Amino acid sequence: MDLKKNRARELLDPGADRYRDIRFGKVEQWIAALPSGEDLDGFIYYPPGFDPGRKYPVIVYYYGGTSPVTRDFGGRYPKNIWAGQGYVVYVPEPSGATGYGQEFAARHVNDWGQRTAGEVIGAAKKLAETFAWVDRDHMGCIGASYGGFLTEYIITQTDMFACAVSHAGISDITSYWGGGLWGYAYGARALAGTFPWSDRDLYVGQSPVYSADRITTPLLLVHGDADVNVPPGESDQLFTALKLLGKDVEYVRIKGQDHHILDHEQRIIWNDTILAYFARYLKERLAWWDALYPAPTDWR
Description:
Layout: E1 27-29, E2 32-33, E3 39-40, E4 42-45, E5 56-61, H1 79-84, E6 88-92, H2 102-106, H3 116-130, E7 134-144, H4 146-157, E8 163-167, H5 173-179, H6 183-190, H7 200-203, E9 219-224, H8 233-244, E10 249-254, H9 264-282, H10 287-292
Parallel strand pairs: 5-6, 5-7, 7-8, 8-9, 9-10
Antiparallel strand pairs: 1-4, 2-3, 4-6
């Protein structure tokens, strides 16, 4: 990279042989002008053979923790694979992400969805307003860990998404703060200076499980049953609440897996579960989900 001339020259492409027969879609930066007047950084993954004259289902994916989503190929949440399934994948970088300066990162402290949920919702709406290829009736959202929390909180605030996926999400800030291996340590920063007894508006008011009755969006909860970072009880309790309320919710526990799904065979199940769920609601194709999770047998 020549920084003075802002020019780049490729020296080596180690993956050229491996990806010789792979078709990649285009990836481009897209800045969302939010109603607040701020611009939100982000990028769009297009499926191979993208046709702007068609309508496409859209997956909105955002960070976990406060690490910005990078443009590397693969990763735990494979944007290229999702795009390869015929989705447009939109990745906004909400407030709190590192890499955008101290002020931007510090917005994460004691926010817990108050600002970031509005940014994701506003950016997704702006995407739909800007591009005719967006199928507004078939937009889904997904996040993991803090991003899983954000998914759960977002769908207490809007019904614009056709479905939502939360992997290892936090449904009750108090139980996560006191029960997760990282809860207290992460809370020292993300909940700096506040505690359940000193800020009930934050610990209760921002916890999705306390607003479960406001959720109308179909939701998939996915959690490793050996997760010590965000204990699976965080998904258990939201699933229980939504089932009691008669809501559309599915819950898949991944056996023997911690916060990250690393076992190869279990990772295939995890990835297929997410893709099958999106196919069910964003493409209205139920066969994949029904094959993975057949309806219970009637024992009467």
